[in-house]
Amino acid sequence: MIDNKILDAAQRVIASAGLESATLENIAQAAGISRSTLHRHKINKESIIIALTNRATENYRAAMWPALTAAGSARDRLLTALDILCEQAEVNMALLLGLEQNLAPIFHEEGEEATTRTVFTEPLERLLRDGIADGSLRPLDPTETATVLFNLVGWTFIHLRSGHSWSKERAKKAVIDIAVQGVVLS
Known about the structure:
Blueprint: H1 4-17, H2 24-31, H3 35-40, H4 45-69, H5 74-91, H6 93-98, H7 104-107, H8 118-134, H9 142-162, H10 168-181
Helix pairs in contact: 1-2, 1-4, 4-5, 4-8, 5-8, 5-9, 5-10, 8-9, 9-10
């Protein structure tokens, strides 16, 4: 297991200069340790990236918990969950943009049809099922709709932030407003 001090340093390097600049030398310097310390512990760039993506996944799961357990309609809790999705994308934007070409193993299940990993879609699927049950959301296929929402909101938010330089709040509001209109009952 890689120490959080090293992971935090790697995240700072990636956020400030991009994934390409996340060399072991730069990460070690940001962590206040020597590069040889990383080598002694058999830590390389790939193991750091894997640890960062695992940490981001766990943080996403933990962040979703309040939306899943809160009181109120599923519609309101879904809005909270989509807001959390954008917040988590914001926190991990540099990493996600840096890994753009290599995201399939992180986000997709293996198989003939590359579905989004359930760790990312399950919270949304649960809220969709709750919304169908309480009558606040349309009776759509929860599994498919959760996959669409995760990808629609997450990746469009990232694109608007990084490609169009929209503010976090503007991108979040625009994406969530449109996404929710597709699932709420009129």
